[in-house]
């Protein structure tokens, strides 16, 4: 199939041009890492099971039989449909990996080993190979063999305990944040390993990312506060414990987030809401004093916002140079001019004949920006081309297809 042209093509080589990635994961964590590397120029070859392929193709809302999520997660990738349960499929995968720079996988520990593709075996074929392994609990430790999804990682990492109103059931963040955090940590590891190999002549290596550890790594002062004071941080709803004022406040037509926790910002906020008595109070001049009276401060802000619309509140606080913002829905994002001005909403053609709006690329590099070079593939779109590049003849490819080893 002809690849859909990218919305734009940079004049300089992509940052990861020349890097070949074999993606053997599915669903979210491994593929999100592959997506990130692909956006900055890596060639990403995704190995999928023949038939339905990656289950993400059928998750959430489908258009023309395929998830629109898939259109984002798998752009810039080539799909090779290969049955890794069969020895011949495993042999083909080893051939692909032998010529790659990076292997990304997010199977349960031991799966690669069962296919004859342990790190030792793969490094014997390709000493410079960088192997990213994302799993629930990591490749070692007493929990390594337990099944683990992102939501379990969020719980074990300490996040889920905090995501609730006080005294109520912990709720999940509305996206698969545990998987995505693991993917981003994995991408950082891949880039560090690539740099080490290129700049210092280092060998290939294994990057071991556990879902719960990626979550735990962003939990800020959670553990040090327990270690130093025995303090167990508890759920605080929309507030930021120990930082004041920073909360969500009711308006006539919705909610607004206000972050007035800088010393000078707090004074401007109090002036804007007509509470100079609080703004000039000596004991509220610093954060520690404001935390001691946070309920009073929140009540004052809430009383002011409750009499106004979200737009009136955000306009007034913007004029006062106080960080504040509405709680955006998908509709708000799609209609916001700032998102479009920064190319964070892209028109992406699909191979199913329609165009869909998708998130742009983050981070933004000034010389080697990320791009969308091709749309998300159908299962096995690139099988014949990739196998042909490996040196297989048309007859050999036809034989593999007749055995259902490839699609």
Overview of this protein structure:
The chain is α/β, with parallel strands linked by helices and 407 residues long. It has a 6-stranded parallel sheet, with helices on both faces. Strands 9-10-11 form a 3-stranded antiparallel sheet, covered by helices on one side. Strands 3-4 form a two-stranded antiparallel sheet. α1 packs across α7 and α6 packs across α7. The N terminus is likely disordered.
The N- and C-terminal alpha carbons lie at a distance of 14 Å
**Unreliably modeled segments:** 1-9
Q: Look at the structure and give the CATH class of the largest domain.
A: Alpha Beta
Q: How many runs of DSSP E, i.e. beta strands?
A: 13
Helix content: 25-40%
Taken together, the total number of domains comes to 2
How many alpha or pi helices?
A: 18
In CATH, the homologous superfamily of the largest domain goes by the name Crotonobetainyl-coa:carnitine coa-transferase, domain 1
Which word captures the global form?
elongated
On the 0 to 100 scale, the average pLDDT is 95
Largest sheet: 6 strands, parallel
- Find the structural class using helix and strand composition: alpha/beta
Using only C-alpha atoms, the radius of gyration works out to 25 Å
Question: What fold name stands as the CATH topology of the largest domain?
Answer: Rossmann fold
Strand content: 5-15%
Q: Architecture of the largest domain, according to CATH? A: 3-Layer(aba) Sandwich
Kindly report the spatial arrangement of strands forming the biggest sheet: 5-2-1-6-7-8
Oligomeric status: single chain
């Amino acid at each position: 199939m002809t690849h859909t042209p990218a919305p734009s093509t940079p004049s300089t080589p992509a940052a990861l041009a020349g890097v070949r990635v074999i993606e053997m994961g599915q669903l979210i964590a491994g593929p999100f890492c592959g997506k990130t590397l692909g956006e900055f120029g890596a060639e990403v070859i995704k190995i999928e099971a023949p038939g339905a392929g990656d289950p993400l193709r059928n998750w959430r809302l489908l258009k023309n039989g395929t998830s629109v999520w898939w259109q984002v997660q798998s752009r810039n990738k080539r799909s090779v449909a290969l049955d890794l349960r069969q020895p011949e499929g495993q042999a083909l995968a080893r051939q692909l990996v032998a010529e790659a720079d990076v292997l990304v996988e997010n199977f349960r520990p031991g799966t690669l080993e069962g296919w004859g593709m342990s790190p030792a075996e793969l490094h014997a074929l390709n000493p410079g190979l960088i192997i990213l392994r994302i799993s629930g609990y990591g490749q070692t430790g007493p929990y390594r063999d337990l099944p683990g999804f992102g939501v379990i990682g969020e719980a074990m990492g300490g996040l889920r305990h905090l995501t609730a109103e006080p005294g109520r059931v912990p709720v999940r963040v509305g996206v698969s944040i545990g998987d995505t955090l693991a993917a981003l940590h994995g991408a950082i590891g891949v880039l560090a390993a690539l740099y080490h190999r290129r700049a210092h002549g280092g060998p290939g290596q294994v990057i071991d990312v556990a879902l719960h550890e990626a979550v735990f790594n962003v939990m800020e002062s959670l553990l040090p506060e327990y270690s130093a004071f025995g303090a167990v941080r508890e759920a605080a709803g929309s507030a930021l414990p120990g930082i004041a004022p920073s909360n969500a406040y009711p308006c006539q037509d919705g909610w607004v987030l206000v972050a007035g926790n800088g010393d000078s910002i707090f004074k401007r906020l109090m002036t804007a809401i007509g509470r100079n008595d609080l703004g000039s109070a000596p004991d509220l001049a610093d954060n520690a004093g404001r935390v001691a009276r946070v309920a009073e401060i929140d009540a004052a802000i809430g009383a002011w916002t409750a009499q106004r619309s979200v737009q009136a509140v955000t306009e007034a606080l913007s004029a006062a140079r106080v960080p504040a913002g509405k709680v955006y829905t998908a509709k708000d994002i799609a209609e916001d001019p700032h998102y479009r001005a920064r190319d964070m909403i892209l028109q992406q053609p699909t191979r199913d004949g329609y165009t869909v709006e998708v998130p742009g690329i983050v981070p933004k590099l000034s010389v080697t920006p990320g791009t969308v070079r091709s749309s998300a593939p159908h299962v096995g779109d690139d099988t014949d081309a990739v196998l042909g590049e490996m040196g297989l003849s048309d007859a050999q490819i036809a034989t593999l297809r007749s055995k259902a080893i490839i699609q």
